């Protein structure tokens, strides 16, 4: 019940008390934690400390009511965000149309076949939509079924590797922006096959479907490309942090960091 907690804190001259219990804290323990706080000791929950230190939301230490602790962006923020999406789509479309003949020729000359390809993804509220990309792999790369791209994946062509590093392969998704299926900033949309698997192994995984997916996101600028369940868990923590703290200023920060990644050719 934490009866000895105030004395332990005083004897050891503790300045900050981290409460790692996120479910069902007893009234007696809570009362003793409160005594420590009243004595001038800082008190913080483990999820809050984790967030402030790592800019991630810890999925394994969240209280069950965590999703009720924050509100969606106000109407003004949503309108501004949509205006930014459409403005970016207009500018990017012009650049894409100018580059398309050269990109299409490079793709086809190395690997004859379709220039574009499409995949089903899950969007906001679990809605299925088609996402479009420039082809960066050999034709029929997934004849054995859906699979994550691996490091030095032999299915990726030389041109495709350059497209991925510069993220030029994502440019056709400006059409998804126009249609309102995606936003400029948000969690990257995932394939239904992968979500079915990941939601069974990672708590709160479907929570990332509560917002419109993005061309780039907090997870993409903070974490490397991943192809394991553990990578997906860490990226989900970044996504949940974004969902909780989303704002125009955070979007602007993500956009600038994305530009830096592209200039360094740090894409997948």
The assigned structural class equals mainly alpha
Low-confidence parts lasting 5 or more residues at pLDDT below 50? none
Main sheet: strand order: 1-2
**Total domain modules:** 2
Helicity, in percent? 40-55%
How many helical elements?
10
Order of helices and strands: HEHEHHEEHHEHEHHH
| Count of beta strands | 6
* Mean pLDDT over the full residue set: 90
Biggest sheet descriptor: 2 strands, parallel
* Strand percent estimate: 5-15%
How would you describe this protein?
With 268 residues, the protein is mainly alpha-helical. It has two domains: 5-54, no CATH class; 75-263, no CATH class. The chain has ten helices and six strands; from the N terminus they run H-E-H-E-H-H-E-E-H-H-E-H-E-H-H-H. The chain has helices at 5-11, 27-38, 46-54, 75-110, 158-166, 174-178, 192-198, 218-222, 229-245, 248-263, and strands at 16-19, 42-45, 116-122, 128-134, 183-185, 214-216. The protein has a two-stranded parallel sheet. A two-stranded antiparallel ribbon has the order 3-4. A two-stranded parallel ribbon has the order 5-6. Helix 2 links the parallel strand 1 (16-19) and strand 2 (42-45). Helix 1 runs parallel beside helix 2 (27-38). The model has no long low-confidence stretch (mean pLDDT 90).
Provide a short characterization of the protein structure.
This protein is mostly helical. It is built from ten helices and six strands; from the N terminus they run H-E-H-E-H-H-E-E-H-H-E-H-E-H-H-H.
Keywords for this structure?
46% helix, two-stranded parallel ribbon, single chain, mainly alpha, 2 domains, 10 helices, two-stranded antiparallel sheet, 268 residues
